[in-house]
Amino acid sequence: MIEPQTLYQLFMELYGPRGWWPVVTDAGNQGHDAKGYHPLDYSIPATAHRRFEIALGAILTQNTAWRNVRLCLESLDEAGAIDMQRLLALSDERLEALIRSSGYYRQKARKLKTLARFFLENGYGEVSAASTPSREELLSLWGIGEETADSILLYAFGVPVLVIDAYTRRILARLKGEELSDREIRDYLSSATEGKAVKQQRRILNEFHALFVEHGKTRCAKRSPDCDHCGIKAWCKGPF
DNA sequence: CGCCAGGTGGGAT
DNA sequence: ATCCCACATGGC
């Protein structure tokens, strides 16, 4: 199995820094002129708007292409709903209409309100929040599972945690030649960050997840992987 | 058309 | 614990 460090370096050479999380709206996007990706910017969100937008996006993108989520975030922003109280003030029907394009819109409307209520009650939405939600707290909320919890922790709060998604599992399974449990994936990738400063860990984990997604989309597709143009095929047992 | 997308909760086994 | 399914839109 390829060393995590090597994999990270290869991904970086192949795709360059991705600059996740993508920010869709202008408001709260301090220090940047443009919307979208901000390569080499791994700062913790500097406004409540941006932090909340990231958390909302983490829920809206559950099993959903990001392009379907973009429009929702723009619609929510236009409605002034990237704000905990304003979002909670919307009727369910209105909120559902605003996020329709992300799919599962009835479930997701409920999830967004659950998240907003949780942030509001605990003051986590404030940038000056004294504390960060724990993983357990996030997981206890209806609609937030492991990937969403870890995405929120990493990209909205800057907590150095690994985000494991379907791309990560598929790529590592093909590299190894067999499925890995999430526990095994965490153990395997831990050497890429251990012993490093938190700031450094945050940068690596930001990029690693983004790079798995990029490689998964462009090379390691589920049905028909493009192994001919894959930069890590020399290390790979797949596809299978 | 059918398949897939940066999952999750709930119920059955 | 582990499978199985519902949830839903939009792009290729």
UniProtKB/TrEMBL annotation:
Repeat in keyword set: no
Domain HhH-GPD: 60-218
SMART domains referenced in this protein's UniProt entry, alphabetically: ENDO3c (SM00478)
UniProt cross-references to InterPro entries, sorted A to Z: DNA_glycosylase, HhH-GPD_domain, HhH_base_excis_C, HhH_motif
GO MF term list: 4 iron, 4 sulfur cluster binding; DNA binding; DNA N-glycosylase activity; metal ion binding
SUPFAM superfamilies: DNA-glycosylase
Keyword list, A-Z: 4Fe-4S, DNA damage, DNA repair, Glycosidase, Hydrolase, Iron, Iron-sulfur, Metal-binding
GO biological processes: base-excision repair
Pfam families noted in UniProt: HHH, HhH-GPD
Highest taxon of source: Bacteria
Family indicated by similarity: Belongs to the Nth/MutY family.
Name of this chain's protein: HhH-GPD family protein
